[in-house]
Amino acid sequence: MPLELAETSDPSAVDQEYLWTLNFGPQHPATHTTLRLVLTLDGENVLDATPHIGYLHSGFEKLGEHLDFNQYVTIVDRMNYISPMANEISWHHAIEKLLGIEVTPRCKYVRTILAELMRIHDHLLNVGAVALDLGAFTAFLYAFTQRERIYDIAEYASGQRFHSSYTRVGGVLFDVNNDWADKVRKFVEGFKPVHAELHRLLTRNRIFIDRTKGIGVLTAEDANNWSVTGPLARASGVVRDLRKDEPYLAYPDLDFKVVCARGGDCYSRYMVRMQEMQESLKIIEQAVENIPAGPINIDHLSDVTLPAKPAVYRSIEGLIQHFEVLMPNRGFPVPLEEVYGATESPNGELGFYIVGDGTTRAYRARTRPPSFIHFAIFPHLIRGHSLSDVVAVLGSLNIIAAELDR
Amino acid sequence: MAVGLPENVFLTRLDAAANWARKNSLWPMPFATACCGIELMATASSRHDIARFGAEVMRFSPRQCDLLIVAGRVVMKMLPVLQRIWLQMPEPKWCISMGACACTGGVFDTYAVVQGIDRFIPVDMYVPGCPPRPEQLIAAVIEMQEKIERTGTLNGREFVVRTKPTGPPPFDVDELRRRREAVPVEGLEIYDPPRVQ
Amino acid sequence: MVSLAELQAEFGPEIAESAFRDNRRIHVPAEKLYAVLAWLKESRGFDMLVDVTAVDYLEYPGATDRFHVIYLLLNMSSKERLIVKTALNPPELELRSVVPLWKGADWMEREVYDMFGVTFAGHPDLRRILMPEEFTAFPLRKDYPRKGLGERHNFPVITRAES
């Protein structure tokens, strides 16, 4: 009697036994931080990927309900730790929207310069790390040398090189001086040749192009449907930049372009990031020459900002003001309202949904983290590619685990 | 010495020879979870260059490493991974806890973050800072080398006597009190209640 | 601009509106939420879902409902933003999933479920996303303490002698 094949309920399941399951992470060099992927492989082709996240979930949002608006800056810093100050600026942008504060022109310019420096900071690490993952070590070293210069600038302004906790409600911690502006100018001059060098190393590099062109293509419709923002969306041809669409800080006064590409693949994302660095340099050059004079914090007799140290030590009004702001049961008046404020962080739209309950602590401090939303599209991008493309796609998405899990 | 030795022969103890070899070729395993991981990268890259101290061979497989650098906060979901990586490393092995979060939980005193990895795995060296500067990490690596030279033995006898955990007890009084006083709320159960009562 | 009159003509008079700074908010009852969101997407061009989140109003002064689930919408062609809020009270913490409308809602709804315990009917894969699978509490609810209930230290200890 001839043998017959047993009927299976699912015809597509016949060959399933040939599929491999590969665990990728959570401790893996190419994931940079703590991501975990479970890949289903057919030979070397990735059929499906299931991301598992939460390996760095540290309760940021819960902590935001227990710390006041100025204290939470130190926590926000640690969210996207590749560009800490961009998070601070975004957080205080939302808080100032809630309180109805307009910061001074000088503060706007200083914050703009720092935000753009952080954009370069973030893109440099991303470009360097993508190159490192694809086997080009030199670009990474070039990028890191320049990052150290930006650390120096941040350190000069705030006293901390990494997590600077520099912004405050209604202003910043310390005023900047001319030496700082000189440092920024020097950095801009020094960065231009390195940027060109990075272009020479990677942009027309045969291996780099082969590994990134046509890999992980995201169309514009998909980008909108998956809520993708920032350089990723712009690389897919979505013209969306909060700096132009909902101008904040000093961006309306400055001349710059929104960088877009059509390809939607890893190479387009790399190119968008490289060009954005160029635009950021342009913004910094304009802003650093036009920093307005005047106070950096809003009026020191308002209820919100800490007065300058000399005022605290030499006048009774300053001392009372300092005390009023810092006392937990006094603080500044907060409306019983909720507000969503967002800025264009290097990674995309970083927004905060803040519920104020009349105290100086947020009742709820929801973050809209771009990394979290971008990582959700990863299975969609990787299906059908080979295993070696996983690191290329992962690198081009620029997933920062602390922002992903919060 | 009565017996004449040729000039290129040195006499030493076996332990000292092993320590000399071990301390000058530390292979770090970067367990980089958060911000400190970026400073670890900065330490390894151009300006700070940890290669000057013989500890640049970062290996991402724990089976090839002898120095675990825990850089960044370790949370509930990650701790079993960390313990497994520690167990996979071959002896002799050492552990540097880098940054405030790995040492004590740092600013993240929340429901998900382990308040110091030394409660659950042995730690040899703590580096304070949030994050520590690269110079501090380099100093810690140098101290680690000195410690290995000072205390190491060929067959790891110094580890055998350390039968107690190095950190504070996992459940502090505060935590147990909270657990006891917790008012049961509907829909809020506690998974797998603490083992220490 | 989507006017309130239009919405009320389409979905009945219980739809309310409020505004603060540049945010416009629409308050929708839970049973009409999906219909309103689908209408906003299909005929008013809100083609991007910026965020889905929730707020627990347990200790909020003067609050009447326990939870609000909040949808932040964006119209990519006119750049108009709109916030849609809906109130939920235990024990009926269920909404219809909007993943068929916006795929980006997938993880956002999972996070709301993980942190607040609001379930979404019709979600393709509603599991915990940030907390471990075996965790049973919902950490962002106001009745859960910030330092947790001892879960974070519930692990075996490894000493030098045994490793």
Write up what this structure looks like.
The complex is a heterotrimer of chains A (406), B (197) and C (163). Chain A has 406 residues and is mainly alpha-helical. Chain A has one domain (68-405): Cytochrome-c3 Hydrogenase, chain B (Orthogonal Bundle), CATH 1.10.645.10. Chain A has 17 helices and eight strands. In chain A, a hairpin with a 2-residue loop joins β6 and β7. In chain A, α4 (105-133) packs antiparallel against α5 and α6 (178-203) packs antiparallel against α11. The model of chain A has no long low-confidence stretch (mean pLDDT 86). Chain B has helices spanning 14-24, 35-44, 79-88, 100-104, 134-151, 157-160, 173-181, and strands spanning 28-32, 67-71, 94-98, 125-127. With 197 residues, chain B is of the alpha/beta class. Chain B is globular, with a radius of gyration of 20 Å. Chain B has a four-stranded parallel sheet with strand order 1-2-3-4. By secondary structure, chain C is an alpha/beta fold. Chain C has one domain: 2-Layer Sandwich (Beta Polymerase, domain 2). Chain C has helices spanning 4-11, 33-44, 105-116, and strands spanning 16-20, 23-27, 48-56, 67-74, 81-88, 94-96, 119-121. Chain C has a five-stranded mixed sheet. A two-stranded parallel sheet of chain C has the order 6-7. The mean pLDDT of chain C is 87. Chain A binds chain C through residues 53-54, 57, 59, 61-63, 65-66, 97-98, 100, 222, 224-228, 238, 240, 245-246, 335-340, 342, 349, 351, 353, 355, 357-358, 363-364, 366, 368, 372-373, 375-376, 405-406, and chain C through 20-21, 23, 47-51, 53, 55-56, 59-62, 70, 72, 76, 79, 81, 83, 102-108, 111, 115, 128-132, 139-140, 146.
Share of helix of chain A, binned: 40-55%
In the CATH scheme, the class of chain A would be Mainly Alpha
CATH architecture descriptor name of chain A:
Orthogonal Bundle
CATH topology of chain A: Cytochrome-c3 Hydrogenase, chain B
| Number of E-state strands of chain B | 4
The first-to-last residue Cα distance of chain A is 63 Å
Which sheet architecture does the biggest sheet of chain A show? 3 strands, antiparallel
Instruction: Strand order, main sheet of chain B: write it out.
Output: 1-2-3-4
> Strand content of the residues of chain B, in percent?
5-15%
- Termini gap of chain B: 64 Å
- Strand percentage of chain A lies at 5-15%
Please state the structural category of chain A: mainly alpha
Helix count, DSSP H or I runs of 4 or more residues of chain A: 17
Number of domains of chain A: 1
The best one-word shape of chain A is globular
CATH architecture verdict of chain B:
3-Layer(aba) Sandwich
Main beta sheet of chain B:
4 strands, parallel
Q: Strand order of the main beta sheet of chain A, please? A: 1-2-3
Q: Spans of chain B of 5+ residues with little confidence (pLDDT < 50)?
A: 187-197
Rg result of chain B = 20 Å
